[in-house]
Amino acid sequence: MTSSTFDVAAVASATTVRRWFTSARYDGDPDEEKQARYQLLADFCSHIDQSPDELVESLIRTTKKGDLAISSKRRTVVDASINEFVEKAGYTGRDAVVNGNTLRSFLVHNGIFIQGRAWTGRS
Amino acid sequence: MELKRVMGNRRSIRYFEPDKPVEKEKIQVMLEAANRMSRSGNIDYWKALVVYRDELSPETIDGLRTPTTTTDLDLAPVQIYFFADLSYADPNNFKRNLRDLVNVGALNATHGWSEAYIDETVVGQLVGPMLKDPQIVGWMGTIETGLAIAAAMLAGVDEGLGMCLHAVNQETAKATFKYPDHWVPCWTLLVGYPAEDPQTKGQRPRRSISTMAYLNNLDTPWEEIPEVTERLKSEGLIQGDVDVAARQDEVRQLARRFGLPE
Q1: Tally of structural domains, chain A
Q2: Which residues on adjacent β-strands are paired with residue B203?
Q3: pTM for this one?
Q4: Which of A33, A114, A120 to mutate to test the interface with B (most CBs of B within 10 A)?
Q5: CA-to-CA distance for B181 and A49, rounded, in angstroms?
Q6: Within a domain: residue A2?
Q7: Rounded Cα gap, residues B156 and B256, in angstroms
């Protein structure tokens, strides 16, 4: 695990993190599970040197017509960063899939369409 | 299963038992259903490539992923690539197959058809002009392939399988499977045994047919006959709405089983 330069409490109170927890109905989960998610996200934010809000913002672009859209290129980069982070943090097997997808869940609930791999016991 | 129940039971399945093998016999049933579907001019519009996921290398599977088809490729044991084969658009195919239809009594003098018409003028009158328009060629090829896919899907449901149509990653698919340029990829049908409730805790929302169908003119929406609607409910074509709470519980369990984002 990397040592986080992002304060876990600050991460937990970020607008995008609140949105994530509300949308995923995590607020009623045991404290231990909630803290683990905050910590994981804080560690990832340290890895990419962006706050949760900055991360989400970096994935949204404005089209020529003025609509908001997801940046496909940036999404590919972030997806690769998630995989890199998970590997660097030493997660393997099911843990690697689950932790990577927990980070993707943060993005998904903030409107970033992204899919992760499924754990089938073989990966 | 009765046809209406099969149609009512069909869902887009997105969670499959990843290691439960899909029998080739069942795939053949699906392909034959596609083969028996309506097809104008009795032309072979579609091609299908059946691929068993475990026959592909992990690198190829990675290459086949699209933003909307990532998780599913890990879970579905079978991928069926459906193509519209635009080489159908040869007047001689129509001439030959229409002649067959005359010979077996499908196209008859009662409706103006004759061997003479097919031999002498059908190309100049009907088929030739039609096949010169690329938009028509593409439209016919894909819509006829769509009909075949629909038949395959319903046959698959009848065989107890689940499935969902997905976008094709054309770059990787073309490089991997080396299909000819005149095969236009339409959809990938991912197939397997459902890991979710095959009825997904209820039928997905559909607007009333009165919002889409009209009677005699476009000022008169089709008015549903309540007795028919009730009969279709008892026969399984129209089923209950999704029990959302039960479905959310199921999805959360599936997410945890497969390590997916919740």
Answers
A1: 1
A2: B241
A3: 0.91
A4: A120
A5: 45
A6: no
A7: 27
The count of CB pairs under 8 A between chains A and B is 50
Rounded distance, CA B191 to CA A27, Å? Answer: 36
Which residues does residue B215 pair with via DSSP β-bridges, in sequence order? B217
Query: CA angle, corner A7, sides to A6 and A11, nearest 5?
Result: 85
Q: What is the DSSP string of A19-42?
A: HHHHHTT-TTS-HHHHHHHHHHHH
Phi, psi of B260 (to 5 degrees): -95, 165
Which residues, given as ranges, of chain B have pLDDT below 50? none
Backbone angles phi, psi at B9, to 5 degrees: -80, -15
Residue A75: both structure tokens together:
């999404």
Question: Hey, what's the torsion of the CAs at B56, B70, B160, B200, to 10 degrees?
Answer: 170
Cβ contact (<8 Å) for A120 and B75? yes
Q: Which domain holds residue A71?
A: 8-108
Residue A115 belongs to some domain of the structure: no
Buried b (16+ CB within 10 A) or exposed e, A27-66: eeeeeeeeeebbbbbbbbbbbbebbbbebbebbeeeeeee
pLDDT higher than 90, residue A42: yes
Q: How far apart are CA B61 and CA A42, in angstroms?
A: 31
Give residue A115's pLDDT band: very low, low, confident or very high (50, 70, 90): very high
Report if residue A123 sits inside a domain.
no
Type of residue numbered B6: V
Among chain A residues, CA nearest to B17: A120
- DSSP of B181-207, one letter per residue? TTEEEEEEEEEE-BSS-TTTTSBPP--
Place of tokens 């770059």: B171
